[in-house]
Amino acid sequence: MQDKIAEVISKHKDAFAWSSANMPWIDPNFLCHMLTMDEKVRPVVQRRRKFNEDKRLIIREETQKLLKADHIREIQYPEWLANVVLVQKVNAKWRMCIDFIDLNKACPKDSYPFQA
Protein backbone atom coordinates (compact mmCIF):
# COMPACT_ATOMS: atom_id res chain seq x y z
CA MET A 1 0.00 0.00 0.00
CA GLN A 2 2.84 2.40 0.87
CA ASP A 3 4.50 1.73 -2.48
CA LYS A 4 1.26 2.54 -4.32
CA ILE A 5 0.83 5.77 -2.38
CA ALA A 6 4.46 6.74 -3.04
CA GLU A 7 3.94 6.03 -6.74
CA VAL A 8 0.86 8.28 -6.90
CA ILE A 9 2.66 11.07 -5.04
CA SER A 10 5.70 10.79 -7.30
CA LYS A 11 3.53 10.83 -10.40
CA HIS A 12 1.64 13.95 -9.26
CA LYS A 13 4.37 15.92 -7.43
CA ASP A 14 3.11 19.20 -8.85
CA ALA A 15 -0.27 18.75 -7.13
CA PHE A 16 1.23 18.97 -3.63
CA ALA A 17 2.43 21.98 -1.67
CA TRP A 18 5.85 21.08 -0.32
CA SER A 19 6.36 24.36 1.52
CA SER A 20 4.39 27.46 2.48
CA ALA A 21 5.87 29.23 -0.57
CA ASN A 22 3.88 26.79 -2.75
CA MET A 23 0.59 28.08 -1.29
CA PRO A 24 0.50 31.85 -1.93
CA TRP A 25 -3.06 31.67 -3.30
CA ILE A 26 -4.54 30.59 0.05
CA ASP A 27 -6.39 33.53 1.59
CA PRO A 28 -4.84 34.31 5.01
CA ASN A 29 -8.33 35.14 6.33
CA PHE A 30 -9.23 31.50 5.76
CA LEU A 31 -6.33 30.48 7.99
CA CYS A 32 -6.99 33.03 10.74
CA HIS A 33 -8.53 31.95 14.00
CA MET A 34 -9.77 34.18 16.80
CA LEU A 35 -9.00 33.03 20.33
CA THR A 36 -11.48 33.08 23.18
CA MET A 37 -9.58 34.44 26.15
CA ASP A 38 -10.38 34.05 29.83
CA GLU A 39 -10.65 37.65 31.06
CA LYS A 40 -9.34 36.67 34.51
CA VAL A 41 -5.97 35.53 33.15
CA ARG A 42 -3.26 38.18 33.13
CA PRO A 43 -1.14 38.48 29.95
CA VAL A 44 2.27 36.83 30.02
CA VAL A 45 5.38 38.19 28.35
CA GLN A 46 7.91 35.39 28.06
CA ARG A 47 11.49 36.32 28.74
CA ARG A 48 13.37 36.70 25.46
CA ARG A 49 15.37 33.64 24.48
CA LYS A 50 18.80 34.22 23.00
CA PHE A 51 20.02 32.19 20.04
CA ASN A 52 23.45 31.81 18.51
CA GLU A 53 24.10 33.28 15.05
CA ASP A 54 23.35 30.01 13.19
CA LYS A 55 19.95 29.63 14.83
CA ARG A 56 19.12 33.32 14.32
CA LEU A 57 19.81 32.84 10.59
CA ILE A 58 17.48 29.81 10.48
CA ILE A 59 14.74 31.77 12.28
CA ARG A 60 15.18 34.73 9.91
CA GLU A 61 14.98 32.46 6.82
CA GLU A 62 11.86 30.63 8.06
CA THR A 63 10.19 33.93 8.97
CA GLN A 64 10.98 35.40 5.55
CA LYS A 65 9.47 32.32 3.84
CA LEU A 66 6.24 32.72 5.81
CA LEU A 67 6.11 36.49 5.17
CA LYS A 68 6.72 36.01 1.44
CA ALA A 69 3.91 33.44 1.22
CA ASP A 70 1.56 35.83 3.12
CA HIS A 71 1.01 33.24 5.87
CA ILE A 72 2.11 35.66 8.57
CA ARG A 73 2.26 39.42 8.99
CA GLU A 74 3.97 41.66 11.50
CA ILE A 75 1.79 42.84 14.36
CA GLN A 76 2.47 44.26 17.79
CA TYR A 77 1.01 42.57 20.86
CA PRO A 78 3.12 43.91 23.72
CA GLU A 79 0.83 42.35 26.33
CA TRP A 80 1.46 38.78 25.08
CA LEU A 81 4.84 37.61 23.86
CA ALA A 82 5.70 34.03 22.89
CA ASN A 83 9.16 32.90 21.86
CA VAL A 84 10.09 30.81 18.88
CA VAL A 85 11.59 27.40 19.57
CA LEU A 86 13.83 25.50 17.16
CA VAL A 87 13.37 21.75 17.15
CA GLN A 88 15.80 19.56 15.24
CA LYS A 89 14.11 17.08 12.94
CA VAL A 90 15.32 13.54 12.22
CA ASN A 91 16.89 14.69 8.94
CA ALA A 92 19.03 17.23 10.90
CA LYS A 93 17.05 20.22 9.57
CA TRP A 94 15.32 22.60 11.96
CA ARG A 95 11.60 23.19 12.52
CA MET A 96 10.53 26.55 13.91
CA CYS A 97 7.71 26.39 16.45
CA ILE A 98 6.12 28.91 18.81
CA ASP A 99 5.97 28.38 22.57
CA PHE A 100 2.26 29.06 23.24
CA ILE A 101 2.14 27.34 26.64
CA ASP A 102 1.12 30.51 28.52
CA LEU A 103 -1.42 31.54 25.90
CA ASN A 104 -2.95 28.06 25.89
CA LYS A 105 -3.53 28.34 29.64
CA ALA A 106 -5.54 31.54 29.05
CA CYS A 107 -7.85 29.98 26.45
CA PRO A 108 -10.78 27.91 27.69
CA LYS A 109 -11.16 24.53 26.06
CA ASP A 110 -13.67 24.45 23.20
CA SER A 111 -15.74 21.25 23.37
CA TYR A 112 -17.26 21.91 19.93
CA PRO A 113 -14.51 23.58 17.85
CA PHE A 114 -16.23 23.10 14.48
CA GLN A 115 -19.70 24.37 15.40
CA ALA A 116 -20.81 27.56 13.63
Strand order of the largest sheet: 1-2
Number of E-type strands? 2
Total domain modules: 1
Whole-Å distance between the termini?
37 Å
Please describe the biggest sheet, giving its number of strands, its sense, and whether it closes into a barrel.
2 strands, antiparallel
The top level CATH class name = Alpha Beta
Class derived from helix and strand content: alpha+beta
The low-confidence parts are none
Strand percentage, roughly?
Answer: 5-15%
Tell me, rounded to a whole number, the average pLDDT: 84
Please tally the helical runs, counting DSSP H or I stretches of 4 or more residues.
Answer: 4
The CATH homology group name: HIV Type 1 Reverse Transcriptase, subunit A, domain 1
- The secondary-structure element order is HHHEEH
Helix content estimate: 25-40%
Whole-angstrom Rg: 18 Å
What is the CATH-assigned architecture?
Roll
- Per the CATH scheme, the topology name is HIV Type 1 Reverse Transcriptase, Chain A, domain 1
Large-scale geometry = extended
